[in-house]
Amino acid sequence: MSIAEHYIILVVVVPLMAAPVCVVLRNPSACWLWSALATAASFAMSLAILGDVREAGVISYELGDWIAPFGIEYRADMLTALILIIVSGIGLVAMPFMAHSVAREIPRERGYLYYTMYLLCFTGLLGMTVTGDAFNLFVFLEISSLSTYVLISLGKDRRALTAALRYLILGTIGATFYVIGVGLMYMSTGTLNIADLNILIPVVIESRTVQAALAFLTVGVCLKLALFPLHVWLPSAYAYAPSAVTVFLAATATKVAVYALIRLYFTVFSGVNATIMPVVGEIWLVLAVAGMFAGSLVAIYQTDIKRMLAYSSVAQIGYIILGLSFATETGITAGLIHLFNHAIMKGALFMALGCVVFHVGRAHIGDLAGIGKRMPLTAAAFVLGGLSLIGVPGTVGFISKWYLIDAALTEGLWIVAALILISSLLAVIYIWRVVEVMYFAPADAPVDRQEAPASMVLPMWLLVGAAVYFGIDATTTLDIAGSAAQALVEVGR
Q1: From CA 39, how far away is CA 427, in angstroms rounded?
Q2: What is the pTM of this model?
């Protein structure tokens, strides 16, 4: 048996085993290098898994040779491969950015703690993606969540501790709801294997226990993915966490939670989708549209740009859930493609703010006067990321909005299509507020050109370049998202 056959387990084990080494190393520079190697290894294995899935179909890996559902199974299909690429790819791109950003924002004696927690969070997100066991998903969810609480608390502002505590409380509630749901499903089916649940759930769907399980699972996962109105933990977490933490979490954490929701409805409960999705889809649609407008409207009035982008993320999550609410191949494709595209553009935007924080010390809108001349590369990157957030043609945001509108029109929902366009225009307002200050507001002091270190600027422009490239040629991403959506729809038939 070749080592390639074990990639699906090694993609999780490598960063998990690397984390405690950082505690031993203690030196931040050595910890960074070690973390970068582990992240690069996971990304390489994620690419290999994607290739295997495209060539051979679904991959099943039985831990300890215990046959599923009696043993724990790791499972990878096209959707799994897509999420693995997003998480490991963003992690790898962010590694050079982390080196200077962490050194500037986190005391040196705590540097090793950051990299330890980052690797554990990275492990948890990858584990949630590849596991084929509902309880194992909870275990990895807790690994990522507990490490995230610590990462957020490392922010230099004392309010980071409050943000971490708020996330801990709400995150614990979400995890409790999820594990109660898992327990109720186990009571009714006697299994925790996701593929096995797909077969057994339709038999017992009339049971109040299973219906209660679905309710608990939905609330728990939606709290983790920050679906409106369960998003209250997100703005402060993004605003007060260190810049490197915000970059990684904004681009990956909520995306993996969305993946868990997709697995729940389009795999575990796919056999009864004809019964539950019409009702659930309507609820999702209403909450998604509400989130699109609430997030964008609140973002307009923010003076802290990190908080502004955090509320923007609430709106963008709304777009993703809107696509899923249609429960059609086109709609799911739109949701998945926006999941990928939002990871790219929001990662780029938060990197731009990280570069500003590196020199200015914070990302308050009043401190950005003259940044267009002082940090032209950073300002230009923010503008392009903002255009993508709006959905201007030639950027990934346009691809997302196009497919969302197409999905809405296919369902005959003209009003929803119009609301997508109107909510996109709201993004013009809050992005323009920042652009106006960066380029047209007079600076308080003489402007000297001073960019952030190249290790921060280059990853930022790599993501900006990806936002433009995949906005012009979206063939690859659409092919993967379309294949994943097709497989999910076929499972429910």
Answers
A1: 33
A2: 0.90
